[in-house]
Amino acid sequence: MKFKDILVHIDNSQQCANRLELAIKLAREHEAHLTGLYIITHSPYESQSIRVKQDEAQAEAKFVQKTGEADISAEWVSADWARVGVGMEVVLNHYAHSKDLIIVGQTDPGVLPGDVPPDLPQRIVVGAGRPVLVVPYTGTFATVGKRAIVAWKAGRAAARAVNDALPFLLNAEEVSVLTIRDPDEQGSEERTDGGIRVNLERHAIRVKEAHIVMKNIPVANLLMNYAWENSCDLIVMGVYAQISRGKYDLGPVAKDFFDHMTLPVLMSH
């Protein structure tokens, strides 16, 4: 099982170069077609300026060059959000619905353009209906998915994430199913982890179980600490979200990851 159709969000940020490099690596590993989606942003009441056109041309040239050097199947798509009359996340999700994997970047709060929603990655995770690989805005990542963590909490979101991540997990050298328990919760190992471990082993996936008792440290920090200590290169997690006053309100673990992630995270909603 492989990802055969991958979409990567392209922009003019510095972090995009690392995101594109990672997308090309995954496209090569999975023998996938890679689509680079560039969304043109400007006021609905003004035409594209010379700068806007130059930015797009520069991004396209880099995409064509890098994918050509990698000799992968690729295509460039640009969409003008003012022309289609909807927000950036609607455009991105429209293209995402027909792809196997979506790759977006974590928001860098220090260099966020004024016309880009600060919660764009969150909106894509919630609205894409597909697995979304969120890449940190700092760091380079030689591998993704060779040593993976499944953040497991029995329920719909985690189950969906594990199934969406199978193309990664099937090729992993090791998969850790990590359960974080409340200090007052006793004897729950078999009830929470046994079923998913057996399921993954039936796919011939090498599984290691781990249990951490939650104290006064945020769950996201515990997961990232475990990843660091065990040289993991991917976290797989389900995302819980509910609509509050017309906006999606994410669970606290997902919120922390979007703010502080240190390695790529595959998210499903």
From TrEMBL:
Matches recorded under SUPFAM superfamilies: Adenine nucleotide alpha hydrolases-like
Source organism superkingdom: Bacteria
InterPro entries for this protein: UspA
Domain UspA: 3-135
Family according to the record: Belongs to the universal stress protein A family.
Identification of the protein by name: Nucleotide-binding universal stress UspA family protein
Organism: Geobacter argillaceus
